[in-house]
Design brief:
Length: 353
């Protein structure tokens, strides 16, 4: 009998040559024969219903399988240590202190990872999330992140731990001349790292969005106007500086913004009337900049700040002249600190809409 000709109904019974047989099959002449044991093996079917009244007891909880925290014999692949394992983009609202004194409740994306030793199968990732809910009513800053890292070491038994909080931080910015004001949102990440010696390093990553007018294009436009009487405008574009700082002391996010503004001047505007638009055109003409100028201007402001131990600046001018961007990277140059290398995907994350 050719079992390749068999199909099955909803109950798992076989159909041969369009003839139904329950636990048996027919040959071509209709003779009934015993079916293969593979077709008649009984299956245990669980009850398909949800019991809303079921109560989990301690004994039942202890009986639940836990493969993540299982023995080394369950490891698949090479039994080697893993540098980082955890969660990314776990979101919840957290409170942050502001320089105005009013705490801000902001939607936050959490990345939390720890190291995993070679003999361990995995980690209990829900503990990362539970830690944040245990502290959800506190005001978050880099010092609290250090506390959370120490909690990780205790609860997860890991040697190294990392935390990154990403959020959009609002600040009220005034228009240039009209007296209007509006909220500017800054993409911010607070990062804390703890190594196996228990040493914690703290970082702020801050995106500052500004306009950059090309000095070369400005001079060429002026030449056309003066020499030929032909109207011309220089090209300018929305640009982003990602400033990462490692701290020696406390620094408000507002202070990071102020350092960026003092360096670059031409921050994009929120509320704009005609007099503000004209002022912005004048501001761009007063502070022309190539991408090389942008990182050096930021270096000039960040380098003397005693609360900043180290920094890295990545600038991207999203060209309106070219179909590509102009980019630049500059680090302070601290031994063991930031390096100028960047992941190829970094620049793709620096497009602000």
């Amino acid at each position: 009998m050719n079992f390749n000709n068999a199909t099955y109904n909803g109950n798992g019974s076989a159909l041969f040559n369009n003839k139904h047989v329950n636990g048996k099959y027919t040959d071509g002449e209709g003779v009934i024969k015993l079916a293969s044991p593979l077709l008649t093996a009984a299956r245990s079917q669980p009850v398909r219903e949800y019991d809303p009244d079921f109560v989990v007891t301690d004994a039942y909880r202890d009986s639940l399988p836990d493969l993540q925290n299982g023995p080394a014999s369950l490891i698949q692949g090479s039994p080697v240590a893993i540098q980082q394992v955890g969660i990314h983009n776990f979101r919840l609202p957290l409170r942050y202190a502001s320089r105005t004194g009013e705490p801000l409740l902001l939607e936050t994306s959490v990345t939390g990872t720890v190291s995993l030793e070679a003999h361990k199968k995995g980690i209990n990732m829900s503990r990362v999330m539970r830690t944040f809910y245990e502290h959800k009513d506190e005001t978050f800053d880099l010092d609290l992140l250090e506390t959370l890292l120490l909690d990780y070491r205790t609860s997860l038994g890991s040697l190294d731990a990392y935390l990154i909080l990403r959020f959009n931080y609002p600040m009220v910015n005034e228009s240039l001349r009209s007296g209007l004001a509006g909220y500017q949102y800054y993409q911010v990440a607070l990062e804390a790292r703890m190594d196996r010696a228990g040493i914690v390093r703290k970082f702020i990553h801050f995106d500052f969005v500004y306009s950059s007018t090309c000095p070369c294009s400005y001079e060429l436009s002026q030449h056309a106007i003066q020499e030929r009487g032909i109207a011309a405008v220089p090209h300018s574009q929305r640009s982003v500086a990602r400033v990462s700082v490692e701290l020696n002391g406390f620094l408000w996010l507002e202070e990071v913004r102020d350092l960026c503004l003092a360096a670059l001047h031409t921050e994009t505007q929120v509320m704009v009337k005609r007099e503000d638009e004209q002022a912005f055109a004048e501001l761009n003409a007063a502070y022309l900049k190539f991408v090389e100028d942008a990182v050096r201007l930021l270096h000039e402001q960040l380098d003397p700040e005693p609360r900043i131990k180290d920094f890295k600046i990545i600038a991207s001018h999203q060209e309106s002249l070219h179909s590509h961007d102009a980019v630049s990277v500059l680090v302070k140059g601290v031994h063991g600190g930031f390096t100028p290398e960047v992941d190829p995907q970094i620049f793709a994350t620096m497009i602000h809409r």
